[in-house]
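dumping this here so i dont lose it
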C-alpha cells in the first residue's frame, strides 16, 4: 500500500495505542503462567508473532474483543505453566526482533528442539550473543548459517546459572534471559560485559515481571532472577499501558502542524524510556503540557529550534526526532545512535536518505545523525518506507508540512506497531489518500 499525504494541519483528540513492548512481555508472561487475561493489548503483526509462539509451545491465545480505535484487544491466554512444549512446526517470528529474542530463550526451556526464523529483515539481525549465553547456561543454540543470525535451532532444557553478555547490542537479550530464568531450577545471574544501552526496556521487563509475581533485580554487575518462581498476576489479569513510541508521532504532528492544538489521551506514566519525547518536544520549543494523573498530553505548534539529544536509551525515537529536526531552525544532532542501525532497517541511513529526497540536508556519522533544518526546505516527493513502521510514520509527519504531495511506498507496514495510524491522522484532519482508496 502506498499513501499520499498533502500539507495538513492537525487538531482534536487522538488516543495512544497500547504499548508494543509491554504487550510482547505480557503475552509471553501469561504463557509462562497457567494463564491470564491481558487487557488493552496491542494486536499488531509483531505481537501476533509472539502470540503464535505461545500457541506453538502448547498455550492458547484467544482474542476476545477488538476496540473501535483499531489494534486494541483483550486476550484470553491459556499458558504452558513454565514448561513450553516442543513445537510441532517452525516458529515464524515475522519481522519482530522482540519476538525472536524473547522466544529463543523460552525455546531453550523445552525438552527438545525448536526452530525459529523470520522475514528477510529479521534474518539479518544479530542473535549471536544470546545464542552464546544460552549455550553457556546448558542449552544448545546455534545459527543454521553460522553467522549468529536466524534461522536458529535451539535445544533444551536450559539449566540456568551465571552468564556474561554484552549490554550494548540489544537489551532484549537481558529481557529474554530474565523471563526464562524465573522458571529454571537454578535461576540466572547476568553479568554485563559492556554498558547497557536501551536500559529503560529492561525496566519495562522488571515492571511486567513484578506484575506477574516474579522477583527479578538489578545487581552490581547486571541483573538476576531466582529460579523456581511461578508467573501469576493479581486477579489473573494484566492491563497494558499506552505506548510512548507510538505517542511520539501524534505528539510530533501537533508540534509541527497543530495550530489549534492536539490532545493525546492514554499517556499514563510508566517505565518506558520513550516518555522522553515529551521533554524533547518541549526543549525544541513546542507548547506542550502533560497531565500525568489524567494521562493526557496537550500540544500545539510553535517555532522549533534544533537541539542535541542522545538516543542511547531511546532508539525508537530517532526517526521522529529526525523529522522534528527537519522542521526546526538550526541543527538537530541525534547522538549515541549506532545501535539504531540494527533495527528493522538501518534507521540512521534510512532517515538520512529518505529525508534527503524531501530536500532535507543531513550529516551522517556511524554513531550520530545531524539534521540541518535551517538549511532545508521540505518539498513533497516519493519516499520508501523501507519495510519499517517507524520510518514510515516519521516520513508521514514530514508530509504534513512539505510543499506539495508526499507519497510513502509500502506504508502498510505500520501494522507492526500502530495498525490504525493513518486512520488516526485522518481523524485529526490530515488530507491523505492510499492507493487502496482508488480501487
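and the seq i came up w/
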Amino acid at each position: 500500500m502506498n499513501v499520499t499525504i498533502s500539507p495538513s494541519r492537525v487538531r482534536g483528540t487522538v488516543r495512544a495505542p497500547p504499548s508494543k513492548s509491554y504487550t510482547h512481555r505480557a503475552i509471553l508472561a501469561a504463557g509462562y503462567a497457567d494463564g491470564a487475561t491481558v487487557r488493552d493489548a496491542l494486536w499488531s503483526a509483531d505481537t501476533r508473532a509472539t502470540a503464535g509462539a505461545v500457541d506453538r509451545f502448547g498455550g492458547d491465545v484467544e482474542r476476545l474483543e477488538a476496540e473501535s480505535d483499531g489494534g486494541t484487544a483483550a486476550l484470553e491466554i491459556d499458558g504452558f505453566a513454565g514448561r513450553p512444549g516442543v513445537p510441532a512446526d517452525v516458529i515464524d517470528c515475522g519481522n519482530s526482533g522482540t519476538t525472536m529474542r524473547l522466544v529463543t530463550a523460552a525455546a531453550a526451556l523445552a525438552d527438545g528442539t525448536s526452530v525459529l526464523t523470520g522475514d528477510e529483515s529479521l534474518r539479518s539481525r544479530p542473535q549471536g550473543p544470546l545464542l552464546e549465553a544460552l549455550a553457556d547456561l546448558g542449552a544448545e543454540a546455534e545459527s543454521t548459517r553460522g553467522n549468529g543470525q536466524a534461522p536458529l535451532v535451539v535445544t533444551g532444557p536450559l539449566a540456568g546459572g551465571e552468564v556474561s553478555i554484552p549490554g550494548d547490542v540489544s537489551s532484549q537479550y537481558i529481557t529474554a534471559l530474565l523471563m526464562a530464568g524465573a522458571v529454571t531450577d537454578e535461576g540466572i545471574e547476568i553479568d554485563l560485559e559492556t554498558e547497557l544501552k536501551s536500559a529503560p526496556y529492561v525496566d519495562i521487563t522488571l515492571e511486567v515481571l513484578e506484575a506477574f509475581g516474579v522477583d527479578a533485580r538489578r545487581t552490581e554487575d547486571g541483573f538476576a532472577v531466582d529460579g523456581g518462581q511461578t508467573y501469576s498476576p493479581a486477579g489473573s489479569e494484566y492491563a497494558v499501558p499506552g505506548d510512548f513510541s507510538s505517542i511520539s508521532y501524534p505528539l510530533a504532528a501537533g508540534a509541527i502542524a497543530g495550530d489549534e492544538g492536539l490532545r493525546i489521551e492514554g499517556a499514563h506514566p510508566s517505565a518506558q524510556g520513550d516518555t522522553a519525547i515529551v521533554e524533547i518536544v518541549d526543549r525544541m520549543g513546542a507548547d506542550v503540557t502533560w497531565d500525568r494523573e489524567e494521562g493526557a498530553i496537550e500540544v500545539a505548534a510553535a517555532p522549533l529550534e534544533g537541539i542535541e539529544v542522545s538516543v542511547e536509551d531511546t532508539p525508537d525515537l530517532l526517526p521522529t526526532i529526525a523529522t522534528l529536526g527537519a522542521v526546526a531552525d538550526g541543527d538537530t544532532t541525534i547522538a549515541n545512535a549506532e545501535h539504531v542501525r540494527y533495527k528493522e532497517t538501518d534507521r540512521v541511513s534510512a532517515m538520512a536518505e529518505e529525508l534527503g529526497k524531501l530536500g532535507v540536508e543531513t550529516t551522517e556519522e556511524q554513531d550520530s545523525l545531524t539534521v540541518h533544518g535551517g538549511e532545508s526546505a521540505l518539498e513533497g516527493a516519493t519516499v520508501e518506507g523501507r519495510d519499517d513502521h517507524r520510518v514510515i510514520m516519521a516520513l508521514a509527519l514530514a508530509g504534513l508540512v512539505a510543499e506539495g504531495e508526499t507519497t510513502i511506498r509500502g506504508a502498510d507496514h505500520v501494522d507492526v506497531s500502530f495498525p490504525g495510524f493513518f486512520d488516526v491522522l485522518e481523524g485529526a484532519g490530515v488530507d491523505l489518500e492510499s492507493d487502496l482508496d482508488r480501487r
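The mean pLDDT is 95.
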